[in-house]
Amino acid sequence: MKAWLIFLVALWLPSLSLAQDLPRGMSFIGLTAEGWRAFTVGESGQPELVYDLIEPREFTWSPSADRMVFIYADGTIAERQNAATQILVLNDARDAFTQIRLSRKGQELIAIRLFERKSEYTALSVWQPQRQHFSDIHQQLGKIFDPSANDDKYMFSVVTCMLDCGGIVQEAWVKDRATRDAKQLTLHNGILRYPIWDTHQQRTVYSLRTKKHFQLWQTNKSGESTQLTRTDGTDLWPSLSHTGELFFVRRTGGRGQLMQMSDEGEKQIQLDHIRDIRDLEITQ
């Protein structure tokens, strides 16, 4: 009986990593015994609590710029850089901003504008530090969500159809920084979330709802799409390390688990004292 138990444990252990170093620049919001808290990963390779930030609605962080931007529970947007905190947008502003994200090594802050604090009309916006306000850089027919960016392009998802299509249709789009042209990247006729660009493998990675759950998919430069994960869980927030490692959050049983995908398959990464996670991202 003991030998059989040892055999079962040996089979199970490779799917669970207990003490793995995480990539510098990773951040997420995790549920602890004290509530939802923000965590960052620096040189130690382990999650570190942002001690004086309680119940943030959203959080983004850049280790290169020593800059973090967050949305308080009441909707106020603030930033902290070099230990100094300032308010960017008050919670009673005419428009609301959501899905904040730092890019370009923390030098750029992007967000989605919700006109009149509603999701009916949206825009991709960039914070202008000299003018101290957000400026819109892209609007189009449909609702824009899930922004990400690198030095060459912006990526986002667009809801192009709802009731007339018999359901929501949300696809990945890209906007070139130099030409300012935007084009659609995918045609799944489904619900697609959180597209990011993988410079190492020249592909777009995203979450796509197939039947009941969101799974990870990729689309290469030739436009060919491939499903990456197949699970009864929900796979969200794909994030790439600077060396091309793919991390994501898998929601099962009402909680999120940090996952990593490699050539050997998927594995769960144990996070001590963190019961649930959301809003995973990796920046420089």
Plain-language structure description:
InterPro entries: 6-blade_b-propeller_TolB-like. With 284 residues, the protein is mainly beta. It is 4% helix and 56% strand. It has one domain (26-282): TolB, C-terminal domain (Neuraminidase, 6 Propeller). The chain is built from one helix and 25 strands. The strands form six sheets. A five-stranded mixed β-sheet has the order 1-24-23-22-21, with no helix packed on it. The termini are far apart.
Give the topology string: H per helix, E per strand. Answer: HEEEEEEEEEEEEEEEEEEEEEEEEE
What composes the largest sheet? 5 strands, mixed
Instruction: Tell me the domain tally.
Output: 1
Question: Under the CATH scheme, which architecture would be assigned?
Answer: 6 Propeller
CATH class: Mainly Beta
Strand order of the largest sheet: 1-24-23-22-21
Low-confidence stretches: 1-14
State the helical fraction.
Answer: under 10%
The beta-strand count equals 25
Report the end-to-end length measured between terminal Cα atoms: 50 Å
Gross morphology is globular
Number of helices: 1
Radius of gyration equals 19 Å
Assign the CATH superfamily.
TolB, C-terminal domain
Q: Report the structural category.
A: mainly beta
